[in-house]
Specification:
This protein has eleven helices and eleven strands. With 366 residues, the chain is α/β, with parallel strands linked by helices. It has two domains: 249 residues, Aminopeptidase (3-Layer(aba) Sandwich); 85 residues, Alpha-Beta Plaits (2-Layer Sandwich), CATH 3.30.70. The strands form two sheets. A six-stranded mixed β-sheet has the order 2-1-3-6-4-5, with helices on both faces. Helix 2 links the parallel strand 1 and strand 2. It starts with a helix and ends with a helix.
Amino acid sequence: MPRYIWCLQILFCLIISGAAIAQRPRTIRTVVIDAGHGGHDPGAIGKLSKEKNINLAIALKLGSLIRSSMKGVRVIYTRDKDHFVELYRRAAIANESKADLFISIHCNANNNRSLSGAETYVMGLHKSEANLKIAKLENAAILLESDYQSTYDGFDPNSDESYIIFSLNQNLNLDKSTDFAAEIQSQMAERVGMNNRGVRQAGFLVLYKTAMPSVLVETGYISNAVEEKFLMSPKGQDFISRAIFRAFAKIAGAEIPPDVPGKTHSEPDQNPQENTRKGSLSFRIQIAAELEELEVNAPKFAGMENVKMYRHEGMYKYTVGNENNAEAARRLLKKVRQQGMKDAFIVIFRNNERIPPAEAEAIMRK
């Protein structure tokens, strides 16, 4: 099929999908949870585990949390056991069920076995070569499908040219998807103790075909020995599924139940009281505000540790630190300014929400 006809067909589908979405209520009534890979497609393979099994365990736990805590929400799985589901079929399940949200669960892998942490993807252009490589890795699952070239209109998951077409879909549902993705990342960092690798954009086929806000969560690196054990463990899967659930409940406007007690994988010998429990405060140092999203490891943040991104007032804002009192925050601010971030300042969060400046100032004066 000529490429221009392919583009026109896709553009038409996007227009129809956009119109359908505009007519839907904003309330989340149906969520589709997608456990990546499955069956003869193992996904990434670690020393002790296969990605497909971890994805399924987390997906089922997440669905169970939603069903038990939010009775009015219908949960649909693309798979609830170990079998192969084509990428196009995963998106079709979401579209046919008129889902309001699509969540795809995955694990990451890299030849650099020291890499660790969670990152959440939304549909869009690849802003780095690393993002493109991850998209190619996940999209390669179509090579296991029969007649994939016909099914995906000649799309080649290994061809850079094939990804150009994704630019047509980068703005559809992007704001809602990005807000949800940012909340997932925040919860994964604050509640689980995962390294926050930020919200990213890339051309994933499974997101491209969906007609609703959609995210793909890379829950951790199966290629990292420590993180693999955490991802395999029931405790780790509980923490991760609960973090994603809390993000889901927040965007759905639902009450968030208290967390189960336990330990984060980053603090194996402690039972920490988390900073985001109801009513508690988190003091952070804001180091940048950008109109365009930056990677948390961008050169601009060289020398900064544990950089995190949050969306606020239409901008991408970046912070370091997570202190539980004003004095500790002032000490960190002084250190950050000495490192060259002269315009840095303290921002305060309550229950993972940035509080207004007047309220923050009143707290700082105490």
